[in-house]
Design brief:
The chain contains no helices and 27 strands. It has 287 residues and is an all-beta fold. The protein has one domain: 6 Propeller (Neuraminidase). The chain starts with a strand and ends in an 8-residue tail after the last strand.
């Protein structure tokens, strides 16, 4: 796999996050459309190639196929149990990969109707699973649900619709204290913030960032609560109040990002045909 270094123009407001003169590194390339970077506890990165119908595992710069077919795996996350959770674009479900390598479907229907096309997924510290469900993977299939939403899967198996007023819900992530959930709505070019009640439900939905260029997609946060949004041109970084700190440029349009390495200070970025990373000053929050 090709490894290359590319210079970045770092705005002054981003100097608190990345060193001036930092470089984005192209770690691995040659895929069709990458997504869902998730750092495992064994020091390896899992990511998806959606149309390639594969999950890959990256060790350093060496990539290998982890699972094929993957059900057109899209977003991935490592739960507090250390297990891999995956939103599947093609099979229209959410799965958990168990310690023995077996795969369990944890969500595929809501009130007896097939999900649209789960896109991104995150797991809270208490084990509750949140995922977005846009229509991207439907193809010629007719949707069974009459909305495109965000869902909460409780530990007891109950599936709850948290919001039905999204056009294309995509990236989903929590603030470090898990009191706020951020949801990207791609076609509306914005990110909304929701307070998270004690029962896990959403409250006080509000605009967090609007007029985001390109296609707002996957997101992550750092320990200071800054939000990293993959969208047109690179990683758009916002402080916890929604003020934009700047843009980390990426040569290919990014689709998602995730924190990796032992110190959680390396941001891994999936972008079109490649995987990139960049070292940061601030530690990230792994979800």
């Amino acid at each position: 796999m090709l490894v290359a270094l590319l210079m970045l123009a770092i705005p002054i407001d981003l100097n608190q996050i990345v060193e001036p003169g930092s470089k984005v590194e192209k770690v691995s390339t040659g895929y069709i459309f990458t997504e869902g970077p998730a750092w495992r506890r064994d020091g390896k990165l899992i990511f998806s190639d959606i149309p390639g119908n594969k999950l890959h595992v990256l060790t350093g710069s060496e990539a290998a196929v982890y699972r094929e077919p993957s059900g057109n795996a899209n977003g991935n996350t490592i739960g507090p149990d250390g297990l891999l959770y995956t939103a599947h674009h093609g099979t229209r479900n959410v799965t958990r990969t168990n310690k023995d390598g077996s795969v369990t479907v944890v969500a595929d229907k809501f009130e007896g109707k097939k999900l649209n096309s789960p896109n991104d997924v995150v797991v809270r510290k208490n084990g509750d699973v949140y995922f977005t469900d846009p229509p991207y993977g439907l193809g010629r299939n007719q949707p069974e649900l009459d909305f495109r939403g965000v869902f909460l899967l409780r530990k007891n198996g109950q599936l709850v619709a948290l919001g039905r007023d999204f056009t294309t819900p995509n990236g989903v992530v929590f603030s470090p204290d898990e009191k706020v959930c951020y949801v990207a709505d791609t076609q509306r070019h914005h990110v909304r913030a929701f307070d998270v009640a004690k029962d896990g439900l959403f409250a006080n939905g509000r605009m967090f960032a609007d007029n985001i260029p390109g296609s707002p997609d996957g997101m992550r946060v750092d320990v200071k609560g800054n939000l990293y949004v993959t969208a047109g041109g690179g990683i758009h970084v916002y402080d916890p109040k929604g003020a934009k700190l700047g843009l980390i440029e990426v040569p290919e349009n990014p689709t998602n990002c995730g924190w990796g390495d032992k110190d959680a200070k390396t941001l891994y970025i999936t972008a079109q045909k490649s995987v990139y990373n960049i070292r940061c000053k601030i530690k990230g929050v792994r979800f």
